[in-house]
Amino acid sequence: MTGEKAITVRDLVARKGGEKIVMVSAYDAMFARIADDAGVDAILVGDSLANIVAGQDSTLRVTLDQIIYHGAAARRGCARALLVVDMPFMTYQVSSEDAMRNAGRIMQETGAQAVKLEGGSPARADAVAKVVEMGVPVMGHLGFTPQSVHALGGARVQGKGDAAGQALIDDAKRLEDAGAFSVVLELVPASLAARVTEAIRVPTIGIGAGASCDGQVLVMPDLLGMNGDFAPRFLKRYAELGTAAGDAVRQFVAETRDGSFPDAKHSY
Ligand code: KIV
Questions:
Q1: Which residue range(s) make up the domain with 262?
Q2: CB atoms within 10 A of CB 148
């Protein structure tokens, strides 16, 4: 994809209702390069790196310095796709001033083009509005919001029932009014995601939210089949690279032990 025009926030907004937006979560230059070359529109340095990279049990464990390290690494692998970096837990919840300061650090130290943060309450919308006012594009995130996993009682589908569904639509409109350029919908019934998508003018990007969203996002190691036996219903595993990697390392072990590696071709 090198040489093609870099994708901007405006390009993504213009895709509302048109060609589907494709985003992956990736955390370093190597995976970002593969995704960029494969033609994704956006790369999210998600705080899911807590689970995928650091082996933690929740995204609450990611710090600002850690996401900045990974964001800067992914930036170096990303030539065309829009780079979005997650704002970690405790970098925007306490005050809108925190949100502005920390969004500024992420933009300055990673080279990202946008940040993402979770929730749609009035306080959260205020933080979004102030970060947008600084000139930093913000992607929202509604439905199952992993930084609230303990309050939500686990990774479960959100927005079930009339009242919860309406509340989610209200949150999405509030984020749109605050200036968010898109909204991730995670673990939301497909019918509700369709209503949210209809209700706002900015694109929705779904994960476990059905086919009506304006785009889809998956975590790259999940879709590559590298994340153990993680196989929730929403995930399609497009490859089984974890198995392939294990087989390759097992072969290296065997050949080293039986002396067939290195052979003449791999020696000086
Ligand atoms: O952290 C992440 O990777 C995310 C996506 C799953 C949307 O928030």
A1: 241-268
A2: 16
Same domain for 155 and 249, yes or no, is: no
Q: Same structural domain for residues 224 and 245?
A: no
Q: Are residues 168 and 250 in the same domain?
A: no
Per-residue pLDDT tens over the stretch 134-176: 999 999 999 999 999 999 999 999 999 999 999 999 999 999 9
Closest CA to 200 of 13, 47, 45: 13
Atom of ligand 1 nearest to the CA of 47: 1
48 alpha carbon – ligand 1 mean position (Å): 6
Ligand 1 and 86: CB distance under 6 A? yes
Say yes or no: 228 and 248 in one domain.
no
Tokens of residue 158, six digits = 């959100």
DSSP tally for the chain: helices H, then strands E? 11, 8
Ligand 1 center from residue 85 Cα (angstroms): 10
The answer to whether residue 53 sits within a structural domain is: yes
Q: What is the Cα–Cα distance from 219 to 46, expressed in whole angstroms?
A: 8
Q: pLDDT exceeding 90 applies to what percent of the chain? A: 99
Domain contains 1:
no
Ligand 1 pocket mutation pick from 83, 184, 204, 235 by most atoms within 8 angstroms of CB: 184
pLDDT in tens, 54-89: 999 999 999 999 999 999 999 999 999 999 999 999
